[in-house]
Amino acid sequence: MVPRFLIESSHTNEHEGCVRALDAVTKHGSHLMTHIEWGCDDGVHIGWLVVDLDTREEALQLIPPQYRSSSRVVKLRTWSRKEIEKMIDSLEA
Fold this sequence. Notes:
Elements: E1 4-10, H1 15-29, E2 37-38, E3 46-52, H2 56-61, E4 71-76, H3 81-92
Antiparallel strand pairs: 1-3, 1-4, 2-3
């Protein structure tokens, strides 16, 4: 199974910051624009993208270079009920 990553990239919280971030993403990889969710309208100046890639480094490369230092890449996973029960059992042992 290919790992899944959440990419979270922030920008400055004024109109110009939003426009510059949108422009940078469009120029870096316009195909990403239809997949990034933005919080700007609610005052949260962050873009989020969930991708299935082999490595964290590949995910980071999707971010325009000037925004990489203000971004983070989080590996995601789900837990099965069986895994949760096993962890609970280990706590009770």
